[in-house]
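Z., the sequence and structure:
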Amino acid sequence: MKWYTDYLSAYEKPYSELPPPLTNRVKKRIRELKHPNPLVSVVAIAHNEGNRIFSCLWSICENNCHFPIEIIVVNNHSTDNTESILKKLGVTYYNEEQKGPGFARQCGLNHAKGKYCVCIDSDTMYPPLYITTMTKALQQKGVMAAYALWSFLPDKHYSQTGLFFYEKLRDVYFNIQHLRRPELNVRGMVFAFQTDTAHKVGFRTDIIRGEDGSLALGLKKYGKIKFVRSRKARAVTGYGTISADGSLFNSFWKRTVKGINNFTSLFHYKEKYEDEDSNLIK
């Protein structure tokens, strides 16, 4: 049985259809985890994630870690019942009315009290040792930030075999890219960093996407970016990126062409990236 099998039973389901004993259990666990002096702040961002956020929080509150944590959710201009669910679960949350992941993640960072900050996404589920594995990476000498890998959920549109090869090839590319340009591998849903130093750099709020990589780029000046390859930190998520490309093949082909065109640049350290106009928030 996959570690996420139980969480998947609630994924994409309306909160009203979930069994009360389950929601009460998660609510109780969230309450027990609240701590005035956490070592780690786990910060989720959510925009219209009413049918997925419960599975995310369920997986996080059942993580095995032997140090104090806090769970924070930033409700980023949701128009569905996301905020209502957060209230019912009793999780600490903040409303960020300026729409965009940069604004949402910065809001979470502003409220994080932990020495370490672990960023997650509300449409994603996390393995039992995720928080512990990411925290151990950050506690290594000279490490300023850490990022992990993720897998996609197989369904009728995306076969397990197709996703397996897609992810294997992507992971190989990431290993090469990590050598000189690790910031390009960073995704906010599997990203962790030293909180105090992140305050000095901050998330960019003037771009549509890339706020996670830009923070990693800024943090690289202060220390190492650790690539956590362990399956203990490998999250499972939906199909936001692939769906945007239309199909698994289109996504694979688009990234293959881009990878070939940019291959030689992977071996050159970069301190600054030029933004395309289409990625700027007007």
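The chain has a mean pLDDT of 91. The two ends are 47 Å apart (CA to CA).

Let me know what you think.
H.
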